Amino acid sequence: MGDFRQRIEPLMSFWLRHYYQWRYPNLTIEPGVRIAGKIKLSGSVRVRIAAGTRLRKHSHFFGEGVVNIGRDCLINGCSVGCYRRIDVGDECLIADCYMIDSDFHNSEPHLRHAPLLAKNIRPIRIERNVWLASGSRVLKGVTIGENSVVGLGAVIRRPVPANVVVIGNPEQIVKRFTPAERERAIEELHA
Questions:
Q1: How many domains does one find in the chain?
Q2: What range does the record give for the signal peptide (predicted)?
Q3: Is 185's pLDDT higher than 70?
Q4: Tell me: the pLDDT tens digits for 18-49?
Q5: Which residue in 96, 95, 113 sits closest to 104, CA to CA?
Q6: Whole-angstrom distance, CA of residue 59 vs CA of residue 80
Q7: Quick check: is 18 catalytic?
Q8: What global pTM score does this model have?
Q9: What's the CA gap between 83 and 141, in Å, rounded?
Q10: What is the CATH number of the domain that holds 62?
Q11: Can you tell me the distance from the alpha carbon of 77 to that of 85, in angstroms, rounded to the nearest whole number?
């Protein structure tokens, strides 16, 4: 079964890439993207997915901003609400998490039904090789540094430095990856 899937997936991805780009004119999928799930766009959001990325499960992009997903990522059923800009770096693992760069509504009682104010929208940046675990939430204005891990169900509302593991709500750093640990992991990988 695995061999069959490896042979048929590139062909199915080719057809699905063309179907989704026809279905959603605001969606750009570079050649070489593997699609084994569903993609849904709502609103006027513009989404660009770079080559080598794999899409699994059901991913939903909504809003009116711009989402850029880097090369060689794994997108596994996330929801992305973008009203300005969300950038995901290369080689990221994005599980069934939730990213939103706005508050959806103004918090002031007299403005709650008014159009969203610009102060309530701030872009999100996910740097290279970040892992967002299942159920995590990334809120407006956050940058997550390269090689970091966001744990299961964590709610990220402040910037996360590079090379750390964060968990919880509120988020807290529970581990830092040292250069020696990274080198050891690379050596084990290639052994």
A1: 1
A2: none
A3: no
A4: 999 999 999 999 999 999 999 999 999 999 99
A5: 113
A6: 8
A7: no
A8: 0.88
A9: 12
A10: 2.160.10.10
A11: 19
